[in-house]
Write a structure and sequence with these properties.
The protein is mainly β. The protein is 0% helix and 56% strand. The strands form two sheets. It has a four-stranded antiparallel sheet, with no helix packed on it. Strands 5-6-7 form a three-stranded antiparallel sheet, with no helix packed on it. A hairpin with a 5-residue loop joins β5 and β6.
């Protein structure tokens, strides 16, 4: 089930679910899926995504059940 949608710019939609974060490219109709990776220090803190935001500095913020992630 989708928890949050965020259109970053024309052509990019971020989708947060309880199974992770997905980026949808509307021009290619391709999805890229992101989930926590225990082997990566820059991973999502949890697979349950509640919110997504791009700030004025073009940083991606992701609100999860276990804290915030910034990319």
């Amino acid at each position: 089930m989708i928890q949050t949608l965020y259109q970053h710019q024309p052509g990019t939609i971020w989708i947060g679910t309880f199974q992770g974060l997905s980026k949808f490219d509307t021009s290619t109709e391709n999805f890229t899926h992101y989930v926590p990776d225990a082997d990566s220090p820059n991973t999502l803190p949890d697979h349950r995504i509640f919110s997504v935001l791009i700030d004025r500095h073009n940083h991606l913020w992701v609100g999860t059940a276990n804290g915030l992630a910034k990319a």
